[in-house]
Amino acid sequence: MAKEVVFGVWDYIIMSATMIASVLIGLYFKFSGGKQKTNEEYLLADRNMSIFPVAVSLMASFMSAITLLGVSAETYYYGMIFVVINISYGIATPIASYLYLPVFFGLQKTSTYEYLELRFGPHIRLLASLTYTLQMVLYNGIVLYAPAIVLESVTGLDRLISIFVVGLACTFYSTLGGMKAVLFTDLLQSFLMFGAVFSVVVFASVQLGGFDKIFIVAFERGRLDFSNVSVDPTERHTWWSIIIGGLTTYLSLYAVNHTQVQRLLTVSTLSRSQQCLWWSWPVLSVLSVVTCISGLAIYAVYKDCDPLAAGSITATDQLMPYYVVDAMRVAPGLAGLFVAGIFSASLSTISASCNALAAVTLTDYVSRWIKVNPSYIPWLTKLAACAYGLVFLALAFLAEYLGGVLQAALTIFGAVGGPLFGVFTLGMFTTYANEMGVSVALLSGMAMTLWMSFGGPRPSIPKLPVSVEECARNVTLPAASVTNNSEYFYLYRVSYMWTCPFGCVWVLIVGTIISMVWRQQQPWQKAGRSHPDPALFTPPLARILRKRNQKNSVQCELLKPEEIQD
Q1: In Å, how far are 113, 160, 277, 461, 563 from 102, measured between CA atoms?
Q2: Under a CB-based contact definition with an 8 Å cutoff, are residues 198 and 190 in contact?
Q3: In angstroms, what CA-CA distances link 422 with 9, 18, 446, 474, 511?
Q4: Over the stretch 129-150, which tens digit does the pLDDT of each residue have?
Q5: Residue 264 shares a structural domain with residue 400
Q6: What is the pTM of this model?
Q7: 453-492: pLDDT as tens digits
Q8: 243 lies in a domain?
Q9: What is the CATH number of the domain that holds 206?
Q10: Which one of 26, 29, 230, 373 is at 20 to 30 Å from 123 when CA atoms are compared?
């Protein structure tokens, strides 16, 4: 599609105001409070943040621009069943709050991966933190690049300029203002994300003559089919795949992912941290549901002239930006609001990663191998945050030359989360798992999930029917091709929603078997203790261990020295 410059004065004002406001927040926290002079303030906001900004930031870190653009296209071309994933978020929230979070909050460590060394040993800590670093660097390059290329294709907004401006602004405010700046800019950017998606739904409702028309059209054209309860793993979206896959994915992010756990440690007490998780759930679900509805709204507008089939766009992710340009440009500033919302989704994800990766770098790498003067650590942390921001920027500029690696990076993000979640689960829920077992399980689990995700050839994914009956020019839909999926290797046919659960279960099973066969001294045994530290385990197991330790202590006290001699 030919580029067309559609931005007006108001659009540029809104975009500029978003960037300037983000930078000013960074400057404010640079010169206020403790002025980011300690790592405690820079990385963890002095652990005195209020609940609301942390809860919203948890959502903003999870919902990138790729998610906003992808989910709307998902419901347009495949139906509304994906909205069921919000049920899994509700199931997962208490699990993360009461079974995983208390362990991290009790330890109060800067890096989540310090837990793995305390529970297993130094090798698995290094392996896990390196895995996390690689996936976040690759993913954030895509988070910065993907919306720029999509918006350039439909608005004419030069991708290199947008990458440069957004990348530098994000690096600047997250480096100067630390975690406090990240949390409060996330708050601002979240309002813009909501504004962008809500504006699409409202404008489409006005076009159609009522909000109810969105669902009437969607029902008539088969977009509201929630009947698929098949247990077949090769079916892309069913109730089972979405709920179980969504549950595991949510837990891999909100229960054990360092980016999210670091935010949950910025408040003063465990109960407040748990409230942050509980409040983030409705915020996340509202944005998720509205984004799904926005896809139906766009479909209702284009029900008789699909933009992809008509050649107006070249990829499904361009659908929402195309609608903004095509239908909403008549209202000055709306295109600017939408672009600000999309780039705000990228800003929130990238700034979170700059801060989180700086914490991992200083804690898991630098401080472990080099003796650093404590007064230098805050400066090195800021330097690391800035360096990661520039790495994301460089990767975004190089991304267009990497071809298939773009999809590969997105796949890595999902495929790595399941095995890592399995490692933390083995650590917190069992006392028998050892370093050898979880290390082999993690490496083999990631090999399996990446094989499932990358292997080919793979069958094509059939979309729901679209129409081109009322397109201005003559367009003919391509004939539907019928493929026999049974001809493809089974693992390549398994739904992507099962990748994360598969990786987690693989680690649990393999880690258990190897730990039982290959006996190895646990860290507490190496330290000369006969029993594990209950603080390293999930609360139900920790209570059992404490009772056992108290019972052993009482028995030891009953055996007086003189009695032993007699």
Answers
A1: 15, 44, 12, 41, 42
A2: no
A3: 51, 39, 11, 53, 9
A4: 998 998 888 788 888 887 787 7
A5: yes
A6: 0.90
A7: 888 788 888 889 998 888 876 666 766 555 667 788 888 8
A8: yes
A9: 1.20.1730.10
A10: 373
